[in-house]
Amino acid sequence: MAHLLASNPNASQKLICSNLEYYGVRSRRGSRTTSACYRVGRKRRCGLVLQCSSTTDQDVRLQIENGSSGKLKQQFEYLVCEYGWKVRRLFENADEIKKASQVQAEAFHVPVSLFNDLFFQFFQAEVLSGLLYKLKNSPPNRYACLVAETAIDDPDSAKQLVGVIDVTVLRDQNVLQHLPPEAEEYLYISGIAVSKTFRRRKIATALLKACDMLSILWGFEFLALRAYEEDLGARKLYTNAGYQVVSRDPPWTSNWIGRKCRVLMIKRTSFSK
């Protein structure tokens, strides 16, 4: 349950990443790009700020080129806009928090033969509690819950939250042993969930691409996640997104009744610090 759920420290509807000092912004009419200057330590940098990222790491890299330190942060409304979905950081309000917890609870709840509705209510409350804990205790640049919504441009139309994914900065030695010695931390992906009525519509793919964008913005070169070894559908999704299996759970941890073997999958972004 510790994997689940999210934060957005900014009340505005944009992803705010800290440690970025702007000197000024110059916009071009009719364009989604903005030229900006910012400070990293004592150095002044210039680059592009993209209001909505596209499908590749290279597009996001444009805004942090010319000497970026890798810890650069930028301001985004949406990290990914494609396949008819937009992915952004979770808004910190009661209604959206509840919606996100419901999507994840429905995805991870295991039905039982008796009193299923009651058990689901308890499970959803547990998920919601985990979310609220993350919101209260996680630094904004160490944890993020990303949500996918329908790409509706009509401001009078309610956008429907259809997918959720968690991104956490971790330093677990069980993962670090598969990374280069210079890698001290990585982004761990977990809690990926899509509403049942919206599955098989590229929402999970968009969520994973948003994690790639966030890894570049936060300056992390590696992303990691775990999947059940027998879940071929999920593993195919992650493989197509660029993740590779590097290890499996030890046999003695997965031989218990009801305990499934997991695989550790790692992806290296094309971002170079």
From TrEMBL:
Q: Under the cellular component aspect of Gene Ontology, which terms does the record hold?
A: NatA complex
Report which superkingdom the organism of origin falls in: Eukaryota
Against InterPro entries, the record matches this protein to: Acyl_CoA_acyltransferase (IPR016181), GNAT_dom (IPR000182), N-term/lysine_N-AcTrnsfr (IPR051556)
Q: Provide an example Pfam family for this protein.
A: Acetyltransf_1
Chain ranges of the N-acetyltransferase domain:
95-270
Q: Which GO terms describe its molecular function?
A: N-acetyltransferase activity
Any GO BP: mitotic sister chromatid cohesion
The protein's matches in SUPFAM superfamilies, at most eight in alphabetical order, are given as: Acyl-CoA N-acyltransferases (Nat)
Name of the protein described by the UniProt record: N-acetyltransferase domain-containing protein
Q: Name its species.
A: Glycine max
Lineage at the top is:
Eukaryota, Viridiplantae, Streptophyta, Embryophyta, Tracheophyta
